[in-house]
UniProtKB/TrEMBL annotation:
Enzyme class: hydrolase
InterPro entries named in the record: MINDY-3/4_CD, MINY3/4
Residue stretches making up the Deubiquitinating enzyme MINDY-3/4 conserved domain: 40-203
Protein name, entry field: Ubiquitin carboxyl-terminal hydrolase MINDY
Amino acid sequence: MHVKSSRESFGFSMNRQCDILSGLMAEARPITIDEACSLRYLLFGNLKKTFTSGWTEQSFHFRSVPPYGFFQKRPGPCGVLAAVQAFVIYELLYGPSRIKADSGIIKLTQNEKRDALARALTSILWQAGDGTNALVAIRSRRIVLNAPPTTDILEPDGILEYVKLIYFECKVCLLDYYRNFINQVQDLILQRSREQRIISLQVRRFI
């Protein structure tokens, strides 16, 4: 009987040379006009609708009760949140790093939630790439979409024209990328939250 290694069970091809650091060092390329149109059509069903504040202000932020649930700020990205939420719960219950029966899903640590989210996003994107590759969209600090100035196919929305894409051919690298990315983002959010509380306390002292 052949017992799969951890890399094989997670979709790693043993005959393909893979550098784990490649996930962190992968270069991003600007999104094309065709990809931008396809993405908007996938999310909204047409090219006229665009991202509202419900999308731009949303993140994968866990609630305190229940600790495995996402907090949705405004209507809009319900479908995306529901899909990721389902995969997060699956990872917590049945994934490689599933929680222990004695601790229960109600007593989740921050690291357990982060790892479940990283695995959930990895599984979703890897399935979208037919189990062979994945594309990760990240936001650039400047406009990167190279669209003709006279085009009326896709109107600017403040989101898609800033998108860059990172291509992955290794699921382990994709997971490693998300683990580091999620840690950085959530740490930054926590840092900003602490700074806001400090500023709020300082302001109250002068009122």
